[in-house]
Design brief:
It is a single chain. A hairpin with a 2-residue loop joins strand 12 and strand 13. The strands form six sheets. Strands 1, 2, 3, 4, 5 and 6 form a six-stranded mixed beta sheet that branches. This protein has a five-stranded mixed beta sheet with strand order 14-18-16-17-15, with helices on both faces. By secondary structure, the chain is α+β, with helices and mostly antiparallel strands. The chain has 30 helices and 22 strands.
């Protein structure tokens, strides 16, 4: 990276940094490096080759005077990265981005510069690489590493970004010995825990094995050296065995007229070390260091060759795997079998076609490799066997559909994952579609319960905002804040949903207890008792007897049941009045007379004042949407709390005819504490801007609109527009309706009639 280069020393006389003039040898080295790159670009057209050369010249000029730790010109690094991409036969845009990948951040080159010189697609690739470079991996926790590599995959909008990044990391690991020794551990760990698994997940097995071995070399240099010597000795001892097996195979396939290419396969040092540590084995106990790959022309030939091998050597029971019939998620396919070879030594064999071999070594990169030989790729679609990889090859020209191609890859790799940061750089995995509230509850239930606002990437956003890959999310909390029931309408995670419901249930219980206490006090007043008795002191015995009568364990339980409508307050009040009378507290005759008879109407339970602060214990019926100024009644549903209806609501009338004992008298408080929802219907001559005019008329009356519904009718002529609005009382509603009736294009405005 440009950040790691050796800067030229400043001139000692004036302290000004002077660009260092490259020596002839250094210039020749850079030119020779690019010559080696062009030798790998024979698959490009002349115009594409010219574009790549132009990118090289631009990068060479941007990095002029910069050196790597080895002392080589810095341009040798972008050339090496591009050369690796050329091995995968990536397109010209990817090669140009590989050459330019360090120019954007550290070399005074801007994204508009790249767009001007090379076009938007190349600039976007370089920009994506620059963003990935800024991600900091600062922990060794296994789950953090998994989240980090998943996030890298999910953040890249184009698979070529990941491929170039892997090529970049591979070259940096090859030259890590030139870096300060203090950096070896961090870079090697990051490579082993993050980048090697990405290469494996994308099927880049050759790169995967190399990154593992290079990481092992710098993380455990002593063990690496010892194991390397042991493998070299074993290789010498078993040379005769390997030659005999190869000769036996060639003779057998020739005898049966089967064309097969046989290649030896040696287990990597890291995989040997990992197996030894994982299974507590000595080096001598690792028997599958050497193996063979048998590459045959067609799919059926794989199974035929397997049969021939099993006739030549005896198979080891339980050591056969068919990855052709059931391929791995990254598209890998092969038949694996372990046989007892000469001298009783186990030998592993992998059988595959040329197409499978290409996929096994290059994975996703086979998308580009196959494009260079369409006849071979399409001659027999079943050769790949993997529907996943075959679907990638069928998407189309990668130059135009790279974004679609990568979306397809991501859907299969991580179908529902979105990766975001906390302000302290902790990575959180969230399901796709999760919101800021889901994130808050994922952090901690207290954070979710008290969330009032949020910032995403330092910008204030609504709590219902969906989180995106790479977002840095900060939750703002307040002690007096509680979950909003409306959150249940947009949260995605089960954790958030259950925590919100749990809190609302607790809140509902508290509200129901408060309502029950209010209702019991009102009913007790109708019995001539001014106040509810205290639970402590002399009245404790009265409450004990009342609870035995009701069957509740505590006073709170009894009040909750009254508030939820499971018990009738007047019945409990009569029993309580009797117990108080027995204890010496007699009813007040004056209070009894005043409460029982007001305006000639019997108020058996007393009246409850409604001011809008009752939360979940009191609901306002959606059928009639009563507001202050309407005459109202209360229906105490079984387990549903108190529902407020307009007295002339048809639903309330039907309930009263069927269940009159559950109705109680309620009235509006003199000073309601909030606005209430109600419905209106506005009939208009439909035309341009009519909705804006209606909304302006409502805004002039200081009315808030919470919902709009327009009938699905002809766009011309009269239509009904239905609104749910919030108002303080009937006076404000009347004012809003007057405004509407004086608005041009409005034919009629009235309150919804469903309660008349």
């Amino acid at each position: 990276m440009c950040a790691a280069i050796n800067k030229t020393p400043s001139d000692s006389s004036n302290g000004v940094s002077l660009p260092r003039v490259l020596s002839a040898a250094e210039s020749n080295a850079a030119a020779a490096s690019f010559a080696r790159l062009t030798s790998k670009l024979d698959y490009l057209s002349a115009s594409d080759l010219a574009s790549v050369r132009s990118a090289y010249r631009f990068s060479d000029e941007a990095h002029l005077g910069q050196l790597r730790n080895s002392g080589e010109p810095y341009i040798t690094h972008p050339i090496a990265v591009a050369a690796q991409c050329a091995e995968w036969k990536l397109d010209a845009q990817a090669l140009m981005a590989a050459l330019l990948h360090d120019a954007l951040e550290d070399c005074d080159v801007t994204k508009p510069d790249l767009i001007e010189h090379f076009g938007s697609p190349v600039a976007e690739l370089v920009d994506g690489l620059t963003k990935l470079e800024k991600l900091q991996f600062n922990t060794r926790e296994e789950n953090q590493a998994e989240s980090f590599r998943k996030m890298l995959l999910a953040m890249a909008r184009d698979v070529r970004v990941i491929l170039i990044k892997l090529a970049d990391r591979t070259h940096n690991m090859r030259t890590l010995s030139d870096a300060p020794r203090a950096k070896w551990g961090r870079i090697a760990s990051e490579t082993l825990e993050v980048y090697a698994p990405i290469a494996h997940r994308l099927g880049l097995n050759q790169t995967y094995r190399e990154l593992q071995d290079l990481s092992f070399r710098y993380l455990r240099p002593w063990r690496y050296a010892i194991l390397s010597k042991a493998v070299a000795k074993a290789r010498g001892r078993r040379r005769d065995l390997i030659q005999k097996v190869q000769a036996d195979l060639e003779a057998m396939f020739a005898r049966h007229g089967m064309a097969a290419r046989i290649a030896g396969r040696e287990k990597t040092l890291y995989s040997i070390y990992h197996k030894m540590t994982e299974k507590s084995l000595s080096f001598a106990q690792v028997t599958d260091i050497y193996g063979f790959r048998v590459i045959v022309p067609g799919l059926i030939d794989c199974y035929t060759a397997l049969g021939l091998l099993h006739q030549l050597y005896k198979p080891v029971p339980g050591k056969f795997k068919d990855h052709i019939a059931i391929s791995k998620i990254n598209g890998y396919q092969s038949l694996h079998t372990t046989l007892v070879g000469p001298s009783g030594i186990n030998v592993e064999f992998q059988l595959r076609t040329e197409a499978m071999h290409l996929v096994a070594e290059t994975g996703v990169a086979a998308h580009w490799l196959y494009k260079e030989s369409p006849n071979e790729a399409n001659a027999n679609p079943d050769r790949l066997g993997s529907k996943w990889l075959q679907s990638l090859l069928d998407i189309g020209d990668e130059t135009h559909d790279a974004a679609e191609f990568w979306e397809h890859v991501k859907v299969d790799l991580f179908p529902d994952a979105v990766y975001v940061f906390t302000p302290k750089s902790r990575i959180m995995a969230m399901p796709r579609g999760a919101t800021v509230v889901d994130f808050a509850y994922a952090i901690h239930s207290n954070v979710g319960d008290h969330a009032v606002a949020a910032k995403v990437n330092n910008e204030q956003v609504p709590l219902r905002t969906e989180v995106q890959n790479g977002d840095v999310i900060e939750i703002i909390t307040a002690e007096g804040s509680y979950p909003n029931p409306a959150w249940l309408g947009f949260v995605r995670t089960a954790r958030a949903r259950s925590k919100i419901r749990q809190h609302l249930r607790t809140l509902a219980q508290d509200d129901s207890q408060n309502l029950g206490e209010k209702m019991l006090a009102q009913a007790l007043r109708a019995e001539g008792i001014e106040h509810l008795p205290d639970e402590q002191g002399a009245m404790a015995d009265v409450w004990d007897k009342l609870l035995r009568f009701s069957g509740n364990r505590t006073r709170s339980d009894l009040l909750v049941e009254i508030g939820l409508g499971r018990r009738i307050a007047s019945i409990v009040a009569k029993r309580l009045a009797k117990l108080l009378s027995d204890a010496g507290q007699k009813p007040d005759p004056l209070l009894l007379t005043r409460e029982r008879y007001i305006a000639g109407e019997s108020l058996a339970q007393g009246s409850v004042a409604i001011d809008g602060s009752e939360n979940t214990s009191v609901r306002f019926a959606a059928c009639c949407r009563p507001i202050p100024g309407d005459t109202i009644v209360g229906y105490l549903g079984r387990g549903e709390g108190l529902t407020i209806h307009a007295s002339d609501c048809l639903v309330a009338v039907k309930l009263k005819n069927k269940d009159s004992e559950r109705f109680m008298v309620v009235e509006w408080s003199d000073e309601p504490v909030r606005a209430f929802e109600t419905g209106i219907v506005v009939t208009v001559n439909n035309g341009k801007g009519v909705l804006a005019k209606v909304a302006a008329a409502l805004a002039a009356a200081e009315v808030d609109i919470t919902q709009v519904n327009m009938a699905d009718e002809s766009p011309q002529g009269a239509i009904d527009m239905k609104f749910i609005i919030t108002v303080r009382d009937v006076n404000q509603l009347d004012n809003a309706l007057r405004n509407l009736r004086h608005t041009p294009m409005v034919l009629k405005a009235q309150r919804s009639k469903n309660h008349y």
